[in-house]
């Protein structure tokens, strides 16, 4: 599920402990050994960009970076759900790649095992990157990855439907509820969002929770309950479908594209799908905030590029050149444009929006967005599970928002 930002592999949770032992072995001498000698002619890369256009876009970029560094890129691509298991196997066999791409919420778990080098050990710096991006790639005060592009979610709206109903894109929760109610008609819901019992459901809820002052360190708070009550009210009033508890973000986009929802919460990776729908005109604005003037705080998605401890100094130095190249200003702009993502260096944001005005809402949100692991680090997945568990319970009527959050927090 690359580019969807919500990936937090369940496999990572199951294998993190085992990876500690495997990484300890790898750190003693992986991928070729420090005494391999001779010039470095190839660099091994592992990532999960196995779908188009990402597969080809990154193949072209990596190959260009390889030529610049004077090496051939030997790239292995695996499905996202298989990446952590693959890393575990490679750590055990001391065959870790020279460059490893990791979904940013997984970085701290893997860095905690000792399998990664701080990128700063090779002269790389995260200066000038968005604060949330740096936080996502930092573990115990050291930066372990550099992320060239990021993504987040916004509020999509059908321009024709809103115009016909005399509705303007909502900016606050009250406006969102009023707009969703007015736009609900027949088989059409006013708003679609994804609230499944997985990390994708948590990802979609975070802008509402965080923008209201909610905190994952303790979800049993009035701020989180108010955000969850908003979702419960939208479903209970009929403005949103009860099926949201089963919908993925792809399902939500399908409903929106088919005209079954006038607005939806989703990300820019849906642009290619929506642009194929004949006659569909849509816009995107930031996620509405609790009250006018409040700051919208969205989650940051995307992948970071890391340097595993392979035990071969020469290869690690050459791998650092590849990571630096992927994060050059030119490649950040190119990757963001081709992949409907946002550059992570703040100095590039204005020029990026000038080139890609469709990305304006997402780019604006990146400035105040947060990393999911910023507060809890490697403990984030446990909190994410609590959040989607409470969301499911409250929307399905199993408990009030207050009770659902207390049960999940203490469960």
Helicity, in percent? Answer: 40-55%
Oligomer: single chain
| Gross geometry | globular
Question: What structural class should be given to the helix and strand makeup?
Answer: alpha+beta
Gyration radius over CA:
22 Å
Largest sheet: 6 strands, mixed
| Strand residues, percent | 5-15%
What does this structure look like?
This protein has helices at residues 10-27, 54-69, 83-92, 107-111, 131-136, 159-165, 173-183, 199-211, 222-236, 249-257, 271-275, 313-326, 329-339, 349-355, 360-366, 380-395, 401-410; strands at residues 42-47, 72-77, 99-103, 116-117, 138-139, 142-143, 145-146, 149-150, 154-158, 189-192, 261-266, 282-285, 303-308, 342-343. The protein has 411 residues and is α+β, with helices and mostly antiparallel strands. Helix 1 runs parallel beside helix 3 (83-92). Strand 5 (138-139) and strand 6 (142-143) form a beta hairpin. 44% of the residues lie in helices and 13% in strands. Mean pLDDT is 92; it is low at 1-17 and 24-35.
